[in-house]
Amino acid sequence: MQTWLKELERALATKFYADEVKDVISYYEEMINDRLANGEDEKSILASYDIKHIVKDMTPEVLMKRENKSYLQVSKSTKQLLILLLSSPILLPLGIIYVSMLIFIVSMMITAWVLLFSGVIGFGTYIYEMFGAGLSLPNIIGLVGFGLMMFGMVTLIGLWMLQFMVILWKKMIYWFSKLAHKRGE
């Protein structure tokens, strides 16, 4: 049994994080021990479990539970979910919907970054043009204040948009993992 568990651990380690692998291993170890306690033969128990099938079946469940705290984790979860959704004919319609929503989210994130970048460039240009216009000191102070307000507003809109898209991206991973888990049963 330990050899089989080590093989399962190696297969899971290629897809999941260490704590996720540990949870899946302990789950299957407990199931096997329960079946052994019920008098079943170890070889027949281990023969009834296909490691590749276990990895594929556990993917939606693991993705639902994953916290996705960093962009790297979100990207890895997205990649795993895409592979899962696009590799199964039953899940292919979900995969197509997920890809189209992902394209929308990425384009909105790019828009948010462009908004932030254009705010910085626009404010810099605004200040440069203002000082080149030969205005009086009170006019310059008033226009700098107005420019700072507009720059702050554009920056806040860009940051809020970016944060909202990241939250939506994480929620999409959860929702589509849950749908894949339900369809896979």
Sheet with most strands: none
| Count of distinct strands | 0
Give the SSE string: HHHHHHH
Overall average residue pLDDT: 89
Number of domains as seen in the coordinates = 2
Round the Cα radius of gyration to an integer and report it: 26 Å
How large is the count of helical segments? 7
Distance between the termini: 26 Å
Which range does the strand content fall in? under 5%
Q: Provide the helix percentage.
A: over 70%
Shape verdict: elongated
Low-pLDDT residue spans: none
Structural class label:
mainly alpha
Describe it for me?
The protein has two domains: 49 residues, no CATH class; 116 residues. The two termini are 26 Å apart. The protein has 185 residues and is an all-alpha fold. The longest helix has 48 residues. Helix 4 crosses helix 5, helix 4 packs antiparallel against helix 7 and helix 5 packs parallel to helix 7.
What tags apply to this protein structure?
mainly alpha, 185 residues, 7 helices
Q: Could you give the topology of this structure?
A:
Blueprint: H1 2-13, H2 18-37, H3 42-47, H4 51-65, H5 71-86, H6 92-132, H7 137-184
A few lines on this structure:
The chain has 185 residues and is an all-alpha fold.
